[in-house]
Specification:
This protein is mainly α. The protein is about 65% helix and about 5% strand.
Length: about 450
């Protein structure tokens, strides 16, 4: 009788434990599904802003310039359009902006061989100046040396002068086309409805502009790439080196325990605090170095790419150290013992056995650190990132902006068009992040395969 009761209790307890396990499994699976749905909704929401119909007003409609679409014209035909509609002025401006190799004040006085160095020139014109050229000669030089896209962009700016009056999302454009047409006819009778992708090649390679229809992200994109490149070059060796010392060389003392505790605490410090630290140290205290003055470069102050990169390096350094420590700690002690048993020194054991075995884990930590750094905005604002820069950065000692800064400013602009280009900039930022992470994952998997 007792055994039957105990058997019944046992079965009841087993059933309860199985039911509890099933509930937890369902909870974890539901969490995964909800997270995945939230991610999909986020991406679709962004894409919904990137594509859609726009109402555009032109100073001159494209159909008045050519019976064929302008995109189908070759360079010679586009130059003829520019010459016919704008005269010689836009031709010279296009030559100066696209082909000139001298300062603006020397453009009209220096010989063509110097002004247009590297370009193909008509025979006998090398010693002429720009003022001596006829409109036909200028047109010939432009048609020979420029792409059709460059000439088309000048036509849009100087002749077409498009102005976007209203925008609609992808969903509205697909399901409410008739209502949009009625709205445009009532509110913008001179406008043309066009399908527009705010994310295109011109958007990626163009400089910033106050006109959202013409602006680009080239300075910000290059600024972000400069920041990430310098940040990882500084933070990765320092983080891995500190982790190796704490795990392999440091003694088990109260001082080292205090250092490790502080490193773990620093990983949770708000990013704006690092921005204030960077402002005090890199921008102000080390201004002669971070401004480039110590190297003979001219810069207004220390609010440069190198200052921002050093600040981001401090920001991700605790994350790198902690993850590298965990990766080193996960290496089996038998590897160390076998290496020492064969007569290897401590450094030989670390460099040839422990570090290669821990590299996949270290690369995982690097991915997490870069993912945080690439999207940071607060420390960049404090250090001095500009909201508007029209020049591409060519060295680490210049003023800068970054993609998160543009997104932050554009999303707060009352003009709806800036929200469209902010969504396009977010897509580019995600592509940059995925590219960097994919590279790190490739290197990590390659390290794993080499160990097998």
């Amino acid at each position: 009788m007792t055994s039957k009761i105990e058997n019944g209790v046992y079965r009841t307890n087993i059933a309860k434990r199985h039911a509890r396990g099933a509930r937890m499994r369902n909870f974890f699976f539901s969490s995964l599904i909800i997270s995945f749905i939230a991610l999909i909704v986020l991406v679709l929401t962004i894409l919904n802003q990137v594509f859609g119909l726009v109402a555009v007003e032109y100073a001159i409609t494209p159909s008045d310039l050519s019976e064929r679409p302008l995109e189908e014209l070759n360079t010679q035909e586009l130059v003829e359009v520019l010459e016919t509609q704008g005269g010689v002025g836009p031709l010279r401006v296009l030559m100066r902006d696209s082909l000139s190799r001298v300062p603006t004040e020397q453009f009209t006085s220096a010989p063509l061989s110097e002004v247009l160095r590297g370009s193909q020139l008509p025979e006998g014109s090398a010693n002429k100046t720009v003022r001596d050229l006829t409109p036909d000669e200028i047109a010939q030089i432009l048609a020979t040396n420029l792409s059709s896209q460059a000439v088309l962009e000048r036509i849009r700016q100087d002749i077409l002068k498009p102005s976007v009056q209203a925008t609609w999302t992808f969903v509205e454009s697909v399901f409410n086309r008739e209502r949009i047409e009625i709205t445009v006819e009532d509110r913008f009778p001179d406008a043309v409805i066009e399908w527009r992708s705010w994310l295109n090649l011109d958007f990626v390679v163009s400089s910033q502009s106050t006109n959202p229809a013409e602006t680009g992200i080239a300075p910000a994109l290059l600024g972000s790439l400069w920041l990430m490149g310098i940040t990882i070059l500084i933070a990765f060796p320092l983080g891995v080196g500190a982790a190796i010392y704490l795990e392999e060389y440091a003694k088990d003392s109260w001082l080292n325990k205090l250092i490790e505790t502080n490193i773990r605490n620093l990983a949770g410090v708000p990013s704006i605090i690092y921005g204030m630290l960077g402002l005090a140290i890199f921008v102000r205290a080390l201004e002669p170095i971070t401004s480039g003055a110590a190297f003979g470069l001219v810069s207004e102050n220390g609010r440069t790419i190198i200052s921002a990169a050093l600040t981001l390096s401090l920001l991700i350094l605790p994350i790198l150290i902690i993850n590298a420590q965990e990766a080193l700690r996960a290496v089996p002690s038998t590897i160390r013992e076998a290496s020492f048993g064969l007569g290897a020194t401590k450094w030989q054991t670390i460099s040839r056995q422990i570090l290669p075995a821990a590299l996949p884990g270290i690369m995982t930590g690097t991915i997490l650190a870069l993912s945080r750094a690439v999207g940071e905005t607060a420390p960049l604002i404090v250090v001095g990132a500009a909201a508007y820069i029209n020049a591409n950065p060519d060295n680490p000692f210049v003023k800068f902006t970054a993609l998160p800064i543009l997104v932050y400013n554009w999303t707060g602009d009352p003009n709806d068009q800036f929200r469209n280009i902010a969504a396009a900039a977010i897509i580019v930022l995600l592509i940059v992040l995925l590219t960097m992470n994919s590279t790190a994952i490739f290197l990590r998997n390659r390290a794993v395969n080499r160990r097998v």
